[in-house]
Write a structure and sequence with these properties.
This protein has 249 residues and is mainly beta. The protein has 4 helices and 22 strands. It has 3 domains: 61 residues, SH3 type barrels (Roll); 57 residues, SH3 Domains (SH3 type barrels); 114 residues, endopeptidase domain like (from Nostoc punctiforme) (endopeptidase fold (from Nostoc punctiforme)). The chain is globular.
């Protein structure tokens, strides 16, 4: 029987097999929902609710949660405070897009069940509009490249796209090939505009204007801003040809 569980730590890894030595598929972050289908020793097998991505997760990383989240972390890392006092900062934090329930809002900090959070690091879920998802690319600038990563401590090309869209509550698959198939509206190269997605086999980048894009680039081991034409030429030299340009919104 399936069961709704939540990520209880700042992040957790979804694996291809029930071992931490297996291939990393993706990461989920605090408050994200995992649907458990079966148990296998120290792991659960199931899928993430927002994108139906199947895999194994360590049981210690998820738990039941009866409280509905009402806020989203809207900065790369939001540090937790022990008390309603800016001097009580801890080393603990939540990543961008973590979902929390805020029960009390004061002048500078708001209270969650795991600590107080700066008001400026929060955004109410009710206020989010499905537009301008590319506006937070700055948060991930120079983030190291990490296969299967979904945070500012490490991310891959499709994970970057998914997290940017997740922040605007836009449905988006995890892998680049699925993203390319999911978004239907194609555009010509000479009509590229901010927010368009450029796809190659196994790679995706997002246009931040008509001539530049941002992407998590394996060869440079980080998220970089690059001229679109330059990237097309660089990948063509590796026999990777631009396959499509899609407009998500």
């Amino acid at each position: 029987m399936s069961k709704i569980l939540y990520c209880r730590h700042k992040k957790a890894t979804i694996y291809k097999k029930p071992t931490t030595k297996s291939e990393r598929l993706k990461e989920i972050i605090y408050g994200e929902i995992f649907i458990k289908l079966k148990r296998y020793k120290k792991f659960y097998y199931g899928y993430t609710k927002n994108d139906k991505y199947f895999g194994y997760i360590q049981r210690l990383n998820i738990q039941k949660n009866s409280t509905q989240a009402n806020y989203l972390i809207n900065t790369g890392k939001a540090y937790l405070y022990k008390y309603n006092n800016l001097k009580s900062k801890t080393k603990n934090f939540l990543y961008f897009n973590s979902k929390v329930y805020i029960s009390n809002i004061s002048k500078q900090l708001s209270q969650s069940k795991i600590g107080w959070i700066k008001n400026k690091d929060l955004k109410t879920l009710k206020s989010i509009k499905k537009e301008n998802f590319q506006e937070n690319t700055r948060i991930f600038r120079k983030t190291k490249y990490l296969w299967g990563g979904n945070t500012i401590d490490g991310i891959d090309c499709s994970g970057l796209i998914q997290e940017l869209m997740k922040n605007k509550l836009i449905k988006c698959p995890r892998d680049s090939n699925e993203q390319e198939n999911f978004f239907k509206k194609s555009v010509n190269k000479n009509k590229i505009k901010k927010g368009d997605l450029l796809f190659w086999k196994g790679h995706v980048a997002i246009a931040v204007n008509k001539t530049e894009c941002v992407h998590a680039y394996g060869p440079l081991k980080k998220v970089v801003k690059m001229k679109i034409n330059r990237l097309i030429l660089k990948l063509a030299k590796k026999s990777l040809i631009l396959s499509s340009i899609k407009r998500p919104l």
